[in-house]
Amino acid sequence: MEEIENISSVNNPSEEDNVKYLKNKQNTKRKKIQAVLFLLTLLCTTLAGAEWSCNKYLTLFGRNMSFEDFLQGFHFSIPFLIILTSHEFGHYFTARYHKVEATLPYYIPAWFGFIGSPSLGTFGAVIRITGKIKSRIQYFDIGIAGPIAGFFVALLFLWYGFTHLPPPEYIFTIHPEYAQYGLDYPKYVYADTPTPSFTLGTNILFEFFKNNIADPALLPNERELIHYPYIFSGFLALFFTALNLIPIGQLDGGHVVYGLFGYKNSRIISLSLYFIFLFYASLGIISPYTLFDNQYSFIVVGIYIIYLFFISGCITANKKTRYAMVVSFVTGQLVFSYFFPTIIGEQGWLLYLFILGKFLGIFHPRGEDESELGLKRKILGWVSLLIFILCFSFQPIK
Question: What does pTM read for this prediction?
Fold first, then answer.
């Protein structure tokens, strides 16, 4: 009888066995998708790296990128993906440490070189938290682990890039047309192109590396730093670290602020910073000096007011409150622009703020366990906010 029962259990698996089988099958399928996405992202970031480093493209309309140029792109893609992977695995391993289920990273390839437009080769990577985060401490630990891990790896690549600069003549291999002017090329080249398409911005930490780590005799003109892959990938990593550490909503910085200050205070901080960010980003759109410039001014202002009304829905569903918020915001900007007409915001941030408000959320959810952080975690939280200040740039690429 016992033998018959054993045979029966094999031929008729239990519901638990079926669940395990389906779960393993889904995990296998997911890992295959993740592997393919990683390989595609490696390919795309390598192509993007070759474009930035060599100033050459592989497009639908022609090709001037050689295989050697493509291989040069690995000097960008490898450090960039190592930093990105360090960030995501910081989240992943910390989640697993807290016994919160999470997936391995999904990399997002994005290459636009086929139409002759430069790109970074990726929109980043994400892990999915499939388990439930229950406590303030768990939110804090999982949120802060990614940016901290990516930040320190980025510092290593930045240090390497600034301490292993090639001779100044290296720029002539990328821009042979500069050679006729010699190393005085900036005086002549930039006179004809005063506003180049892509120039790296800066931040406090990047300026420290330029002024204190690099050999001044080897340091290229700031407009050419995009052609130096370790520096370029390191700078982008600093910026994306800061982007994740913005102390709003469910960004990594939002988790940090929630951990440090609790649910109620984090809501006030997130909303205040969101308004300040939005206020600065949109400066110049509406001004008493440009309001009557031409017929299109009213169209732009109208679109902007609709944008404000739409985005205010992230804060409240009450239409009267939303109208009051929009009127107050526009009035404040008109007054500010009247007294400070030369201050213009970086309007490219408006799309990011829209995505942040409508999809990621301005406010952090409340955890089941609101226990306060210990001293060590609080110190680490303040350090991460300092990292945000050191790495942030309103205009990463000019």
Answer: 0.87
Task: Output Rg (C-alpha) for the chain, integer angstroms.
Answer: 25
Q: What is the pLDDT of residues 286-326, one digit of tens each?
A: 888 777 676 677 788 889 999 999 988 888 889 999 999 99
Closest C-alpha among 386, 384, 398 to residue 90: 384
Dihedral sign, Cα of residue 323, residue 329, residue 332, residue 334: negative
Rounded Cα gap, residues 83 and 93, in angstroms: 15
pLDDT digits 0-9 by tens, 378-393: 999 999 999 999 999 9
Q: What is the dihedral of CA 55, 58, 62, 63, to 10 degrees?
A: 70
Backbone angle region of 182, left / alpha / beta, with phi > 0 → left and psi within -120 to 50 → alpha: left
Q: Are strands 58-59 and 62-63 parallel, antiparallel or unpaired?
A: antiparallel
* Helix, strand or coil, per DSSP, at residue 289: coil
CA contacts within 13 A on the Cβ side of 177: 6
DSSP string of 12-48, one letter each residue: S--HHHHHHHHHHHHHHHHHHHHHHHHHHHHHHHHHH
Tokens of 361: 């959320």
**How many residues are listed for the chain in this entry?**
398
Three-state secondary structure along 51-117?
HHHHCCCEECCEECCCHHHHHHCHHHHHHHHHHHHHHHHHHHHHHHHCCCCECCCEEEEECCHHHCC
